Amino acid sequence: MNKNLNEIPVFFAVDDTYIPFLAVSLQSLIDNSSEENKYIIKILFTKVAEENKLKIKKYEKQNVKIDFVNLNKQLEEVQGKLYTRNYFSNTTYFRLFIPELYPQYDKVLYLDSDTTILSDVAELYNEEIGDNLVAAIPDGAVQTIEIFQEYVEKVVGVIDYNNYFNAGILLMNLEELRKYKFQEKFLYLLEKVKFEVAQDQDYLNRLCKGRVKLLDDSWNKMPIMGVNDKKPNIIHYNLGFKPWHFDDVPYQEYFWKYAEKTEFYEIIKEFRRNYTEEDKERDDASSSKLIELAKRESDCVGDDRISRR
Q1: Is the pTM above the cut of 0.90?
Q2: CA count, 13 A, side-chain hemisphere, 219
Q3: How many CB atoms lie within 10 A of CB 114?
Q4: Which end of the chain has fewer beta carbons closer than 10 Å to its terminal beta carbon, N or C?
Q5: Cα separation of 74 and 76, whole Å?
């Protein structure tokens, strides 16, 4: 292999439950990759079966290297402090440990596993980030739901909800994050503040505000925003917009195109067949409770936004 290939470090975080969807994301990433680049894939985990690791390792090729990275040690000291709810697990916090775990990297991409990639991620990686801590895309749910806009401004402390970013696709400036002592500040804030609505995403927005480069939403196209004529680069099936649950999710055709190429296709179809009305009612209730939680927390905070605008 050409040793002069550009290295593109890409991080995911998974548990066994999300292995089939990680496979879809990897399939789409590789199908849209360039032979001019070497893709270093790091998969952060605490519990993944050896059988599933071997299945994912099959995606390796000459210019794609895949490593599983066990984070049990990093999670031990903070395990009891990490709040999760609904379908979230502690994996959502893993990205916060990347800067200190990988001092050899100045910049990396982090991608959620519920993504389908339609362009070469090297284009995103090569975005100029300056001395910003992260580059990211405004969160679609916050852009759409007024209660969340109130919450992120009053509770999280982001002065303008349009600047609140989704943490599912991140270009992370590890060099600047280390200089900023990001992990130390996160662990300190974790002791003082409990964000229950968007959890680690709220911590990221609180800690990084003022040093975020906002990118075009084609790099984090969320179905909650609906379909438009702009070509998406990455589809992010976040919140309740899961093609493996519903038949009418915007951009679902891209997910199934790549899912069919994986050995998990029949398993994923089984997820769809087994998703019941009771499951839907439970998930809808969870979404409603989340909105109620955001409103309750917003109502507990004074409002000085008029004097700041």
Answers
A1: yes
A2: 25
A3: 21
A4: C
A5: 6
